[in-house]
Amino acid sequence: LDLHGLPIHTAWNIFNNSIQDAYYQKYKYVIVVTGQGAIMKEFPTWVTNHPHTKKCDSTSRNPGSFKVILK
């Protein structure tokens, strides 16, 4: 899921909808690219507040991407 370069509110809506879809499709995780700007700073809060996510970890390849573990 690539959110890099999107306005924060748009990215937040896409994130919420995509995570919900992935959860109902029984995905175990989703890789999310935030870039290294404002979205990256807020992203851990988005994950914490979403009802279908467990946690997120920064990926080793790119500091602006995360592996989001779903419930």
Structure description:
This protein has 71 residues and is of the alpha+beta class. 41% of the residues lie in helices and 24% in strands. The protein contains two helices and three strands. The protein has a three-stranded antiparallel β-sheet, covered by helices on one side. A hairpin with a 6-residue loop joins strand 2 and strand 3. 21% of the residues are buried.
Main attributes of the structure:
alpha+beta, 71 residues
Write the layout of secondary structure elements.
Blueprint (H helix, E strand, L loop, with lengths): L7 H17 L4 E5 L4 H12 L3 E6 L6 E6 L1
Antiparallel strand pairs: 1-3, 2-3
The helix content, as a percent range, equals 40-55%
Please count the beta strands (DSSP E, at least 2 residues each): 3
How would you classify the helix and strand content by structural class?
alpha+beta
Tally of helical segments: 2
Strands side by side in the biggest sheet: 1-3-2
Proportion of beta-strand residues: 15-25%
Helix and strand run = HEHEE
Brief write-up:
With 71 residues, the protein is an alpha+beta fold. It has two helices and three strands; from the N terminus they run H-E-H-E-E.
